[in-house]
Known about the structure:
The chain is an alpha/beta fold.
Amino acid sequence: MAVHDRSRGHDLAALRDLNTTVVLRELRSESPRTVSGLAGATGLSRPTVEALVEQLTAQGWIAEADVLVAGRAPGRPARRFRFRAEAGHVVGVDVGVREIVLLLARLDGEIVARARHAVAPGATGAERVELLRARLRRFVAGQGLGPHDVWCLGIGVPGMVGGTGRIRSVIVPDWTDLDLARRLADDFPGPDRVLVENDVNLAVLAEHWRGAARLADDVACVLLGPRISCGLMIDGRLHRGRRGGAGELGHLPHLGLDRVRQGFVWPGERLPGESVTAALARAVRSGEPGALDVLDRFLAGVAPAVAALTLAVDPELLVVTGALASVGDLLPPLLSAHLRPLTLHVPHLAVGALGREGVALGAVRRALDAAEARLPRRHDV
């Protein structure tokens, strides 16, 4: 009998935990809501929802919202509740070759702080790790937060990331086979709190979340510049491949991308700290003589690789990102003209809409997804 009682108690606790999660996620998706609205949306009884709302309010996950409802009949208005997005935060980081971009977001995805730091051109891999750690600590502390207030960190790096989180190949010196999450574990301890991902994979997440790919679920996000890579989304989900190498076009020598990269030269003026790619994009935008021809030759060189990707994946949308995206509306027709003779059809082309924060935004999205997966365990804390 005692065993049966313990089993029944365990089942009831699990059911209550599940119901709590359902109510909390409903409020995360749409706030504020009344108790009646939550009961209708979740299928739970009103008394059950009332009890769960009181529990979640006491635990700090939700709060009563002060909302005026226009045109309501006289009388006491129904209580309305909102998810407390400020109850936790995530950080998204883009560790680039020339700079580090940091974004702090609430649990609803609203960006509440941002920072950008230059990286010395000759910095070693170890120096970059220490710079990242120092900037992260300062960034979080500068917002009045401690490490425990950050639920998750998403970090984008320019290289392949294996299933265990180790960086398999990268442009950053000395980072091959680096376990970056482990290096940051002393500052942000806890299981799966630091998630490292390929930067172009995060770019496609960001474009699908808030950029040019919001209405598409089969997306190829192509980084065009001295480095050529691709992130893939299939059926609305990031496709990494078995070992994290999906979309790494630059590793196949038969495509001739090494030759294209070596020939990618813009002899015009470069601003301090500006890459060749960014300088060319600026020259095209300002109409400098010869700039458009250089861009067109480069696109002709990369078109076979992009065409091969298009034939293999058949994406609904192809998004061009990186410094060349700042060229704007000129880019899709130029690339499309080179793709047309090589493919069965040319997918719709768009230019990345998120600029220099795209990878960091994707890292925020990745961190939010991880935080979402932990919500059922968090309200018992």
